[in-house]
Design goal:
By secondary structure, the chain is α/β, with parallel strands linked by helices. The chain has a seven-stranded mixed β-sheet with strand order 3-2-1-4-5-7-6, sandwiched between helices. The protein is built from eight helices and seven strands, in the order H-H-H-E-H-E-H-E-H-E-H-E-H-E-E. The chain has a single domain, classed as Vaccinia Virus protein VP39 (Rossmann fold, 3-Layer(aba) Sandwich), CATH 3.40.50.150. It binds S-adenosylmethionine. The site of S-adenosylmethionine has 25 residues, from strand 1, helix 4 and strand 2.
């Protein structure tokens, strides 16, 4: 996104894109410190208002994230959902999970956010009940395997936001593996009779509503 557009959006949102911004900065600092092997890429702060929109739209009481990182988006989701909303966030890297838990404790969000250690593909089959909002922000190679669990773990009206679709569209250098997994995921979820899906061009997220 052009710098001037970012500036305009930041001004229009008037502080709404600044919520938990320190956690966004900590995530970037951690990744830079740990080098190429670390994939702690926090979501864009200009996406922060999305979570308040979705929390309001779904009257969210339970939200789920795959790929917690330092906890930036989970904190946004918990703040958007308010004190009666519970966020479960799955993290495969034990160090990242520890950092996120500390961050939630420091922000008084521990009661609202539960960090589940493990990979999405191993944890999703064990989860129970329905989530109002789901955010997929981990390893996209696993995404096709998530589809049966997305059906089981949502109710009509739930919203699934899927990030990290960029490699399929030739972004991020165009050399990352897993394009086929993204293609398979998108093809299947677009055709799935249980979901209606919109792919956001440019941002390369998809938004699926459970019907
Ligand atoms: C893009 S970052 C997530 C950033 C976070 N959602 C945010 O906006 O602050 C990806 C994180 O997901 C974790 N991860 C990657 N693949 C995963 C998987 N299959 N299951 C669980 N965690 C995963 C990585 O260790 C990393 O911490």
């Amino acid at each position: 996104m052009r710098k001037s557009v970012k500036q305009l959006l930041t001004e229009i949102y008037d502080g709404q894109a600044d919520v938990h911004l320190d956690l966004y900065q900590l995530s970037n600092q951690h990744r830079r410190k740990h080098g190429r092997g670390c994939d702690m890429f926090p979501s864009d702060p200009l996406q922060a208002p999305l979570w308040t929109v979705l929390a309001s739209l779904t009257h969210a009481r339970r939200m789920l994230e795959v790929g917690c990182g330092h906890g930036y988006t989970a904190a946004l989701m918990a703040s958007a959902g308010g004190p009666d909303c519970q966020v479960d966030t799955i993290e495969g890297d034990l160090g990242h999970a520890d950092l996120a838990e500390q961050a939630f404790e420091q922000r008084g969000l521990s009661r609202r956010i539960h960090v589940i250690r493990g990979r999405g593909q191993n944890i999703l089959p064990k989860l129970k009940g329905h989530y109002d909002v789901v955010f997929l922000d981990g390893d996209w190679v696993e995404y096709p395997r998530y589809i049966p669990y997305l059906r089981r773990l949502t109710r009509p009206g739930s919203v699934v936001v899927t990030a990290n679709l960029n490699p399929f569209f030739g972004c991020w250098g165009g050399k990352l593996p897993g394009k086929q997994a993204i293609q398979s995921y998108l093809t299947r979820i677009v055709k799935d009779p249980h979901f209606r899906t919109y792919i956001v061009p440019g941002e390369w997220h998809s938004i699926s509503v459970r019907v």
